[in-house]
Amino acid sequence: MSLLWIPLLTIAGIFVPVIAARYGRKACITATLIAPLLALGLVLLHAPSVIAGDVVSLQIPWMPLLGLDLALRIDGLTLLFSLLILGIGSLILLYAGHYLSAKEDDGRFLAYMMLFMTAMLGIAMADNLILLWLFWELTSISSFLLIGFWGHRSDARRGARMALTVTGAGGLALLAGVLLIGQAVGSFAMADVLASGDLIRGSANYPLILALVLFGAFTKSAQFPFHFWLPHAMAAPTPVSAFLHSATMVKAGVLLMARLNPALGDTALWAVSLSLVGLATMLYAAWFALLERDLKGILAFSTVSHLGLITLLLGLGSPLAIVAAVFHILNHATFKAALFMMVGIIDHETGTRDIDRLGALWSMMPLTGTMTILAGSAMAGFPPFNGFLSKEMLFEQSLINDLLGALSLVIPLLVVVAAMLSVAYSLRLIWSLFFAEPKLTREQKAQPPMKVHDPARGMLAPGLFLAAMSLLVGLFPMTLASPLLNAASLAVQGETTPVFHLALWHGLNLPLAMSLVAVAGGIMVLRQQRYMARIASLFPERNAGLIFEAAVQRLIKWALWLTLRLENGSLQRYQALLILSALVMAAIGLAHLDSLTGERGLQPLDGMLFLGAGLMVFGAIGSALSHRWRLVSLLMLSVTGLSVSLTFVRFSAPDLALTQLSVEVASMILMILALFFLPQRPPLLVSGRRILRDLLLAVSLGLVVAVLNYAILTRETLTIADYFLRESVPGGGGTNVVNVILVDFRGFDTFGEITVLTLAGLATFKLLNRLRLFMPSGNIEGIRWSRHRYPLILSVVAQILLPLALLVSVYIFLRGHNQPGGGFIAGLITATALLLQYMARGYDWTRERLPLNYSIVAVSGLAVALATGLGSWLFGYPFLTSAFGHFHLPLIGEFELATAMLFDIGVYLAVVGAVLMILINLGRVTTVNRPTLEER
Amino acid sequence: MEALFSIVVGVLTASGIYLLLRGRTFPVIIGLALLGYAVNLFLFSTGGLNTHAAAVIGESLTPTDPLPQALVLTAIVIGFAMTAFVVILAIRARGDLGSDHVDGQQGEEGDIPR
């Protein structure tokens, strides 16, 4: 369980500085340090067993269906990285307390640092690939926050955005890679993945997996050609750079490659891609480190170069190369963190990071100078520093490689060249800063010389400690590093533990000679530096930042162009595009169908069918053709609607027929009312092209739908009808299965539907509120509307019809559970009957006699339905469970009562209320009683 | 018969879509209604086209599939609610914009009835 405490502690540590910030800088730093130090202690508790070769792990199921577990592990690799993250992290927090100026928001800064620390620790500890990816993304986001900490500076914002874009893209690729690995292995658990190396390497997707994972790793670790974000990330405060670019962020990519080495490594593809990319990065970045003038820029490029070195070692893949890679991860973190701290100190004391303006600082800053000499020598690979040991191992391993066949010799040669450049830029750093005179321009010389001194002890101590460590590790490698390296390389290699001996002196051999050549060459390069500058000036200057920014701008411009093309504000065009895409997708689906006609036999035709079909086709085409003669079009529509209702009668759907019929009546009244307010004869302003386009779209979609329908009709379908038919009487207590489904089996759906209906009703009320419309006084031909609004015959008939219609609707309602009918249909009939009164007598007359508020009717219907559903909770059943029983009353006889009936009453009320709400409100617009907000 | 039914559904769809693509609100409303018929018939037909087979227990030995019917029944009512909403929206747009064009273009000559 103690494993879980490690990330939990650092997570808790995120909140500490936010709270502690108000108690002053010192208290804040001290309080923040508690969590990482405790976590470090916990990690160290596990160190003995891990060094003995064990893997400590913890599995807590999280989302087992997705293969995501809260799984943590500590093996050698985790141990190494946890020490770096928590150890160097704590030193940097200490340093940051002195670095940040007094007015800086230290609470926020430290919280971001802790967030980043948590994310990084998560990558190292994750025992599940998806979990690892989650933490990976978290490092991208938290590094974005850290790099952009000085958000008021545009270079910080740009650098942060670039880092996020590049590493974020890598993260997405990694996710794809991880998913593919999971597909190949059948599990995301790290142990399973690492044990299934052969399975992954054998799968057809292996090249794709490798490409995706390596894309993620290379972008994170700033490998060529994705290195460009790292120098721009130097806009961050220096403690951030010291942490992100020495021990953590950029090491995440290397960590990933090391971690997945047992699963993905050991193939020619892996070896060649890693070594060549590593080698290219190493050389390219070392060259630019030599040319750079900004101190942080030099360190940034040298970081890229050293990451290339580690990648190359992982690519070489021999047991000792792996040991060297792990060793160099440790060494580089140590000396590079110290060097970044040094740059921070110099920037802090002198106010500049320009190497040409600085010089001869040795007499003024001896302690900083000592620190630089120690760490810089380690970076150059001088004995007796730790960098020498890992570089020697690289020389040795590069000599025995056989990656490129007969050309394999190229690798050690190029490695020596890179080492030469590395010596040159390291020496340049030490020499120019502390011993050479600054190269000042005339104006700068006119200013008084800088008066600087070593900083406070707290700012120096962390860097000096790390610089001393690089010396001590170099002197006593077997005591200080060997056990850790042994455990870590065991984790990277999988099975075999390599036997190795770390020592400064291996006798006179080829690697030593290579070291000597590198040192001599490096000094020569440095002495001829002006030639280097001249060579560099032959090439056009390329600013990766500008190129990236231009690409981003191009992307935005292109997206804007596309958006404008698609979204020109014309709903008609959107509609056409929507229909077109539906058409394409349906057509693609149909193209996969083998034959049009299925196996089910066709049924015979008869005259009635032809007549019905003819009516519908006539109505449909008629209403489309006559759409400018709106009333005609509407009448044509009603022909189709009524024929649809007859179709339902023919094909055994009496409930549907009744519903369609009553809805048809209500819709017709609605649309005729609408016609009153809309122009009756619109102008013809349409081009032939538009009509042709629409016709083509309409006809093709119609064709596709017809084909689809035919294909379905002629095939046997799987149905769950049997369940409903079987359970209707015993389960729902009704013989009309359609109604039982509505009010019982699928009652919850019905509840949703009457809610929508009621909402539509309420919405119409709001929409018509205070609407000012022209009241047309006549029709299009100029004939005035009749002043006899309420014809006598209609009023009389309507009055006679009302009780009859209400009686019918009660009858339809009551029999609904067993015979065609039910709440929906009864509600529609009632609504139509009431509507007739309004039409025949007008709003005022009817309202006087029937003072009903229909929104209340509709809402109370909903309430009844809801209460019925909730009622079943009282009896301990799930929502909307129905119950029924048979009762006997004298005179009437045996009858049945079901709770479903109560629910149906709710449906009935909601339908009546909603339909009348819609129609009456619209009708009222024609009268003086226009709806207003005050009256409801 | 299946072919005839499909053709009718296809024609209803085509007419509905054509009207849906018009520039004025009223044809769009009619188009929606037509498309609604087509969709309802289509869904209904997935239960099979059976005669004298109402899904009432005891009426028929081989009752038809009641589930599509239940779905279509609510679809008809919801369809009405949606039509009503669109109608009111069209009227409101007319009132506020003085035009019945779907894009809300300001009214042209002859738009406003006398």
From TrEMBL, chain A:
One of its GO terms (molecular function) is antiporter activity. Residues 616-680 form the MrpA C-terminal/MbhD domain. Residues 126-403 form the NADH:quinone oxidoreductase/Mrp antiporter transmembrane domain. Coiled coil: none annotated. The keyword Transmembrane helix applies. InterPro entries: CPA3_Na-H_Antiporter_A, MnhB, MrpA_C/MbhD, MrpA_C/MbhE, ND/Mrp_TM, Proton_antipo_N. Residues 690-772 form the MrpA C-terminal/MbhE domain. Pfam families: MbhD (PF13244), MbhE (PF20501), MnhB (PF04039), Proton_antipo_M (PF00361), Proton_antipo_N (PF00662). GO terms for biological process: monoatomic ion transport. The chain crosses the membrane at residues 6-24, 31-56, 76-97, 109-126, 132-151, 163-186, 206-230, 267-291, 298-316, 322-346, 358-383, 403-436, 457-482, 502-526, 574-593, 605-625, 632-651, 657-679, 691-713, 750-769, 790-814, 820-840, 852-877, 897-920. It is found in: Cell membrane; Membrane. This is Monovalent cation/H+ antiporter subunit A. It comes from Billgrantia kenyensis. The lineage of its organism: Bacteria, Pseudomonadati, Pseudomonadota, Gammaproteobacteria, Oceanospirillales.
UniProtKB/TrEMBL annotation, chain B:
Its main location: membrane. It is found in: Cell membrane. It holds the Pfam family Oxidored_q2. The keyword Transport does not apply. The chain crosses the membrane at residues 6-21, 28-49, 69-91. One of its GO terms (cellular component) is plasma membrane. InterPro entries: CPA3_antiporter_subunitC, NUOK/Mnh_C1-like. The keyword Cell membrane applies. It is a multi-pass membrane protein. Keywords: Cell membrane, Membrane, Transmembrane, Transmembrane helix. NCBIfam families: PRK09094.1. Belongs to the CPA3 antiporters (TC 2.A.63) subunit C family. This is Na+/H+ antiporter subunit C. The lineage of its organism: Bacteria, Pseudomonadati, Pseudomonadota, Gammaproteobacteria, Oceanospirillales.
